[in-house]
Amino acid sequence: MPKRGQQEEINFNEEPEEKKPKNKSSKEKPSKKAVKSEKEETPKEEGQEPVQGEAKGPRVIPATIEEEMKSSYIDYAMSVIVGRALPDVRDGLKPVHRRILFAMDDLGLHPNKSHKKCARVVGEVLGKYHPHGDMSVYDALVRMAQNFSLRYPLVNGQGNFGSVDGDNAAAMRYTEAKLMLMATELLADLDKETVNYGPNFDETLQEPLVLPSKIPNLLINGSSGIAVGMATNIPPQNLGEVIDGLINVIEDPDVTIEQLMKHVKAPDFPTGGIICGMQGVKDAYLTGRGLIKVRAKVFREDVKSGKEAIIVTELPYQVNKSQLVERIADMVKDKKLTGISDLRDESDRTGMRIYIELKRDTNADIVINQLYKHTDMQTTFGVNLLALVNGQPKLLTLKDMMIEYIKHRQEVIERRTKYDLRKAEEQAHILEGLLIALANIDPIIKLIKSSKTVDEARSGLAKKFDLTVIQAQAILDMRLQRLTGLEREKIEEEYKSIKKLISELKDILSSMKNILSVVKKELLEIKEKYNDKRKTQITGAAEEFNLENLIEEMEVAIPITRDGFIKRMQITSFRSQLRGGHGVTGMATREEDLIDQIAVASTHDFILFFTSLGRVYRLKAYEIPESSRVSKGTSIANLLEFAEGEKVTAVISVKNFEEKNQFLVMATKNGVIKKTSLEEFENIRRSGIIAIGLKDNDELRWVRMTNGTKELILGTKFGKAIRFKEKDVRPMGRSASGVKGIGLGPKDQVISMDVIAEGLQFLIVTRSGYGKRCEIKGFRMQHRGGKGIKSANLRKGDELATLMLINPTDEILVITSSGILSRQKVSGISVQSRYARGVIVQRLGNKDSIVDIALVHQEENIEIIK
Predict the structure, then answer these.
(1) CB under 8 Å to 801, separation ≥6 — which residues?
(2) In sequence order, what E strands does 296-395 have?
(3) Residue-by-residue DSSP string for 174-242
(4) Domain 404-530, what fold?
């Protein structure tokens, strides 16, 4: 056996494989050497003899740039694929990792020896086997020592080898390394001609093309890499599970992948975490590709003052902990995550611990789901089981990977057994000669003494006692102490033992079944030696994230200003007041801006925004940024794609669009009314859709939801009102213009539209702050298109602010143009006739006026300010 690092041809008594010619195009590309200049005679001048051996000019071979680039790029791509990016399916290593382990073994950095500087290892690898950058080698060495990168680390590092926070390892001159015990299993039997060797980069040394690999390294440690036009991402698995699966394949070659998954349940990441659902795992094992959802492991902990804390102890594979904590902090700062009052990293050498303290009365489940949704506490591992098989990249299934590994171990065992058999037969041959010598010791001694030279003695022994040259030499080399009786017995016992070993080795080689039994036996030994428990848990499939599940359902107020600012506020921000109160500030507006309207809805409702140009837009209520009572809010133009000059004129909330016989009734300022089925508004683009076709100088102002059988009422700013049946308005398409609802006088326009329901009353409020309740029966039924009847006794210069339907138990939000918002009970407003002026609903300051009224459902335990 040649020494490692020396070039020598090894004969395994097998016919060498014929080298297959490389595929070439019909026009064979000349080598670069062929392009070199050749010697030729130069053209001679008249009367001058040619100079022998004088060089000709360079021979130029024409080639298209396209073909040259294609050929060169293919060469480069294959070099990256085979030599750098993809692991070999047999030992699971890329060339750089294989060379590092081989060099460390050569340096004697075994588990029972002391560590040595990483710089020495890197230098050994660079100088002998890997002609690339030193950092590429050192980075690969560092990764093999990180217990958060490899499920079963192969290098025992001493010093700073980085952290899960993304910290880099210390410089190679500071760190030290040696092989882990498991790495020696990859290198085991390397000196027994078990694998092929090839020349290093300068063809001065030999290096293994693959390692014997007693452990299924690719399966248990995985691999990742990006080549040219392809990539691999193989997850790590649990050693015990993988070995159980391999034994199952050995015992039953027809086993299905579904049956193998009873043993190999799912990937087992070094950082733990939780795998959510098995569909992605099944896809990966069956097809070679799949998406696996991995979540952080969290639990809840009670802390002081009745608060709760979320504790994160494990993260998904390859998640940077410090970046995760920073991301959470940024989201809390930007108010994208609510309910968190404190955040800190309490991790130490005993383990990971991210502490997230919640505000009092915060729903921990909602916060946890928000963290899974918006941060790397939940990631998707994209499996791509791509590896080199016979030097070619191939997409594999779980069973394919196991079969290729078993094939490799079969070959290793067969070659190792042949090597051991040859060595055993050589030793038996020598022992047979020694036994002959011991049986004829006196004649042999006499022959040796009578010989003049060693060659004469060797040939004499071979001729007289029918020995081979090797046996004769062994007799000459035998020490005299072996002539004692005890030594003679040892030789006889050794011969018997060797003969028994030869018989066993021949038995192993007699059938593939026996070779596989050795593979199985060694796998079980590896399992007993290195098996450990799973780190990654497996749970049921994670529910698809629905933002509504992450948002607590509550009633909110959504005010909108005339200049298009919007915000979302909890309705409990406003306490109920008695009629005539001064109210509280509902929205901070610019001096020239006014609150135009307000909607009250659930956070889970759809909010439909109807605009002056007759278009409609849609948002979920929770998509509107939440703000305090006194904040200005967000420009609605940042949330919706409005056209120039377009502004919101009507806002309604919708639970869903699936209910039958639901309509949206729309009214314009010029008295046009239209009814359209709610279903036609189910699919609304971000850029909006047409809600009504408007005529010149008209605007869409009001929208209400009905069931098609109600009564409608329209009110004008000059105090006119018309009540008619909804059936008078036939359903129309979205782009239709509608029909006449009320006949308007000069300069009059519609200021409100509402749907009449039994048991309700009219609430009529003027811009000057007066209001009253009126019974519905006080407004007689008319036909659509009439001029209406008087609804209020208006002062000179006063106008109606609203005419709406209310329940006597309702509460209202009164919004003024200066931004004052008042919440009060409707029951505090007296019932009067159509001709009455009403009572003071809201006391107003100078130049202030009421701009909108919104209904609020009655709540329990509302504080009343008197």
Answers:
(1) 751, 765, 766, 767, 849, 850, 851, 852, 853
(2) 297-302, 308-314, 340-345, 354-358, 378-384, 386-389, 392-395
(3) T-EEEE-HHHHHHHTTGGGT-S-EEE-TTSSSEEESS---SS-HHHHH-EEEE-SS-EEEEPP--HHHH
(4) Topoisomerase; domain 3 (1.10.268)
Q: Are strands 537-539 and 274-276 parallel, antiparallel or unpaired?
A: parallel
- Residue 559 is predicted with a pLDDT of 83
* Every domain of the chain and the residues it spans: 93-212, 297-376, 404-530, 553-865
Write the CB contacts of 65 (distance below 8 Å, at least 6 apart in sequence): none
Q: Does residue 442 carry a pLDDT above 80?
A: yes
Collapsed DSSP state (helix, strand, coil) of residue 599: strand
**Containing H/E element for 746?**
none
Asked if 328 contacts 343 with a C-beta cutoff of 8 angstroms, the reply is: yes
Active site residues per annotation: 174
Alpha-carbon distance of 486 to 799, in angstroms, equals 129
Q: How many CB atoms neighbour CB 56 within 10 A?
A: 12
Give SS3 for 624.
coil
Distances (CA, A) of 599 to 621, 652, 814: 10, 7, 12
Give domain 553-865's CATH superfamily.
DNA gyrase/topoisomerase IV, subunit A, C-terminal (2.120.10.90)
User: Residue 700: which residues within 8 A CB-CB, separation 6 or more?
Assistant: 610, 611, 612, 613, 614, 649, 650, 666, 667, 668, 691, 692, 694
Query: What is the spatial distance between Cα 723 and Cα 745, in angstroms, rounded to a whole number?
Result: 17
Q: By C-alpha distance, which of 87, 108, 107, 102 is closest to 200?
A: 102
Q: Higher pLDDT residue, 364 or 291?
A: 291
How confident is the model over 671-697, as pLDDT tens digits? 999 999 888 888 888 778 989 998 888
- Distance separating alpha carbons of residues 666 and 678, to the nearest angstrom: 12
Q: Specify which residues 677 forms β-bridges with.
A: 663
Instruction: Mark out the alpha helices in 648-778 (DSSP H runs).
Output: none
Task: Report which secondary-structure segment, H or E, holds 712.
Answer: strand 711-716
* Separation between Cα atoms, residue 717 and residue 766, nearest integer Å: 9
- pLDDT above 70 (res 55): no
Instruction: Choose the CATH number for 93-212 among 3.90.199.10, 2.120.10.30, 3.40.630.30, 2.102.10.10.
Output: 3.90.199.10
Q: CA Rg, the chain, in Å?
A: 44
Residue 822's DSSP bridge partners are 814
Of 580, 591, 594, 587, nearest to 558 by C-alpha is: 587
**In terms of CATH architecture, what is 297-376?**
2-Layer Sandwich (3.30)
User: CA torsion, points 107, 112, 118, 124, in degrees to nearest 10?
Assistant: 10
Q: How far is CA 458 from CA 430, 432, 475, 483, in A?
A: 14, 16, 9, 19
Count helices and strands (H / E) in the chain. 18, 44
